[in-house]
Amino acid sequence: MSEPFDIEVFDHVYSVFPEEEGVYSIYKEGREYLQIQKDTESQWLKLDPESGIPLFGLDEEVNAIGVAIVAHERQQ
Fold first, then answer.
1. Number of domains observed in the structure of the chain
2. What pTM value is reported for the model?
């Protein structure tokens, strides 16, 4: 499993904690903010905080965070 890392998106710094394959816990301002899962290279899904089930729907912030994660992982 990868080590946690920080990314900057929309003038916010997010801490990214890789979980199982393709799932990431995202922290914003020191608090758990959301969990996301990779759907495709440019499409990411927010996970329901209670059930962990993917929530389908376009979320610009989630996709931007996902794209930044992919960019970070390519640099590693």
1. 1
2. 0.91
